[in-house]
Amino acid sequence: MHGVQRPLSPYWIYRWEITMWLSSLHRITGLLLSLGAVVLAAWLIGLASGPDAFDAVQAIVGAAWFKPLLVGWTFCFFFHLANGVRHLCWDAGYGFDPQRIRLSGRLVLVVTILATAAFSYAAII
Amino acid sequence: MSLMTPLNRVLGLGTAKGAAEHWWLQRLTAVALLPLGLWLAYALLTLPAFDYASVAAWVQRPVTSILLILLVAAVGYHSALGVQVVIEDYVTGKGAKVATLMASTLAHVGLTVAAVFAVLKIAFGS
Fold first, then answer.
1. CB neighbour class for A119 (10 Å; exposed up to 12, middle 13-18, buried from 19)
2. pLDDT, tens only, A13-27
3. Which of A26, A41, A125, A37 lies closest to A78, judged by CA?
4. Closest Cα in chain A, distance from residue B101 (Å)
5. Which CATH architecture has domain A19-124?
6. How far is A16 from chain B (nearest CA, A)?
C-alpha cells in the first residue's frame, strides 16, 4: 500500500457542473417549500378560527421582517416548479443529452429569477 | 440442498416498499401542482386585500374552496413523498430512520387534514 498512488474516488474531483448544483437546489427548495406549506396551513387554519386568530397570523405573515422569507419562498416555488418541468421532460425521455441538459438548466435559472423578481415586485414589496 | 425454488428463495426479500408507486405518485402530484400552484400565485397576486373579510369571502367562493382543497391535498402528498426520500437518504440507523419517517408522515397527514378541514369550515361558514 505504501507509496502506491491509487486512483481516488472521483467524488471530490468532479468539475462542479450546473447540472449538479441545480439538482441539489431542487432538493433544498423542495424541503424549504415543505416548511412554507406549514405557513400556508397555519394561514388557512387561522382564517377558519375567526378574525382574531387570522389577524394574529397576518400580523406575522404581513410583517416587514417576514418579507425576505416570502421572497425566498417565491424563489423556491418558481425554481422547484420550473426545474420540476425539466424533470418531467426527462421522465418522458426528452432533453437528456449534454447540450440540452445544460441549456434547460440555464433556462430554468433565467425563468426563476424573472418570475421571482416580477412576483416579489407585484405582490410582496 | 434446499428444496426451495429460486423464485421462492427471493420472494419477500426485496425492499418491498412500493418504489414504482412512490415514483408514479410523485409525478402525478407534480403534474397536478403545476396548474394549482400557478393558480394560487395568481390568486394571491390579484387578491384585493388581506383583511379577514376579504380573504374569507375569497375562500368561500366554491371554485376557490375546491381548488384550495385539491392544492392542499396535492402539496401534502407531494411533500410527504419528497421528505421521505430525503430522510431515507440522510438519516442513518434503522431506529432513527423509522422514527423520523413516522414523525414526517404523521405531521404531513395531520397538517393536510387540518388545512382541508379549515377550508371546509370557511366554505360552509360557521
1. buried
2. 677 889 999 999 999
3. A26
4. 14
5. Up-down Bundle (1.20)
6. 21
